[in-house]
Structures are given as C-alpha cells and as structure tokens.
Amino acid sequence: MQACPGPDRDTRAPAFAVPPGSCDCHAHIFGPRDRFPFSPERSYTPEDCSADQYRDMLATLGFDRGVLVQGGAHGTDNAAMLDAMERLGPRIKGIAVLPPGTPLRQREALHARGVRGFRMSTVVSGGVGFDQLEALAAEAGEMGWHLLLHFHRSEELVAVADRLRGLRCHYVLDHLARIRADEGLDSPAFSTVMSLLDTDRCWIKLASLYRLSSQPYPHADMLPMIHRVVAARPDRMIWGSNWPHPIHTGPMPNDGDLVDLIPLWVPDAADRQRMLVDNPQALYGFEPLPRQT
Predict the structure, then answer these.
(1) Residues 149-195: pLDDT tens digits?
(2) Please, which residues bridge with residue 65 across strands?
(3) Domains, the chain, ranges and CATH?
(4) Radius of gyration of the chain from Cα atoms?
(5) DSSP 8-state class, residue 35
(6) Which of 127, 141, 167, 221 is the most core-located residue (most Cβ within 10 A)?
(7) pTM here?
(8) Cα-based angle 85, 20, 202 (whole degrees, multiple of 5)
C-alpha cells in the first residue's frame, strides 16, 4: 500500500487572476481518519486533508467554486466528501463513487446534497471499474448526472471508445485521459479523444497534467495537445487543481503555480471564461452568477 505525501500547504497566490465564478473542478477530501476511516481495500494512504484546508486554498487561488471528487482511499463510502460539501455550502458540488444499483431515492438525496455524477476508475482499488459502465451510465442519466472516467493508461480509453459512443449520458475524461506528452497528437488515444468530442457528450478535464509531462514546470511538452483540444471544443473544457495531489511521486506542485499555467494553456480570455466559469456552471448545475450592474 502506497503512502502519499501531503500537498504543499503553503499555497502561493498566483499572478494570474481568474475570472469571478471560477471553479476548481477536481479536488479530494481525506479524513479526518478518526471520523472517516479509510477503506481497507485502498491502494494508497493519504494524509488528512480537510474541508477547511481546501476552503483556504481556494481563497488563496481566487476561486469561488469547487468540485470534490470521491478519493480512492475512502472507497465507496462517500461520507467524508459529503460532510465537507455540507461544511462548504452550495458553492461546492461532488462526484461520488457508488456501484450500480443505488436506489433512486438515495440518488435523489445525494442530488439534493450537491452530487452531480459518478466516478469510475482503473487507477485505484476499492472503487467501480468499467465493467459496470453501461449500468452506471443509465443510473447517471436518470439523474441528469455525468460519469467521470479515470484511466490508468490512455490505451484504456481506446479500448472502451465504442462503448462510450453508445452512452446517452455525458462523461468527462479525467486528466486528459492520461495521454502522456510523449504519446502526442498522432497517438491512437488522442485521435480517440478528438472523435469523442464530436459526439457533444464528451468533456475534457485539464488536471494533474504534470503527471503526464516529460519536462519540468511549466511542462511545455503538454501544450500541443492542450491547444488542440481547446481550439476544437472550448465549450467542453474544464480545469481542476487535483489538490491534494494523491499518488504523486514527483515534485509536489504548488497550486498557485498550477493556476499560473492557465493563460499559457488557454491564451484567449473568452475561452478561459468558458473553461473556468461557464462550462462548470452548465455541467455541475451551479446557480448562475448574479448580474453585475
């Protein structure tokens, strides 16, 4: 079982100012383990990372909204995430990990608490894998939710692409479908991403791309793929910090540095508005921002 270091808790205020209403679409809450024990089936053990710490990190970065994704260390027990969502209020939504067969009444209760989708993963143990894709997609579709698809390797996307084309619900490819920089624009996985974007049901999350780069910060080798997907579908891009960066074995990023990559990744201000504000608002069902007078 892998022990995970905690995040860089001295978050630097970024030089780039995100627009009002910006949403960090990917973060995890872990523990506190004396109240919310970790799953015995987990593949890693993180440090406790609390709702209060996440709130403070968001404030330093200038983000108004966030999305908590159920972390693998807690398996299918979503209690820690739900508790954090309640503490942080309606500006936070959630993505749960639950097997198919969750009764409609329970899903409706989760929706009322801010849950907006299911996560499926081949990366961590104790969760829900792609053998249950169609069943979980049907239950997500009943709720107007989406699936968050977490691949271990990009080849897995290619293997399930035809099944994804048959889904009627929306789905998000987590972490750019784990396509490494050295695979590049001509890889089967990237071609698959581009074809799935044409379906209108596929979304791309730009998060933890430092894992996929072969170069140090600012990870310039990722730019060709990022620029291509943003140019193709700026209406299907979202961004996430991946705080507190679990299962990361390289140098721990500072989240302020990650925010400062946003204008490098997305040079156009209108596209940044879509990625950070408009797209998350549509995908997760946030209330529209009050009109400024």
Answers:
(1) 999 999 999 999 999 999 999 999 999 999 999 999 999 999 999 99
(2) 23
(3) 19-284 (3.20.20.140)
(4) 18
(5) T
(6) 127
(7) 0.95
(8) 65
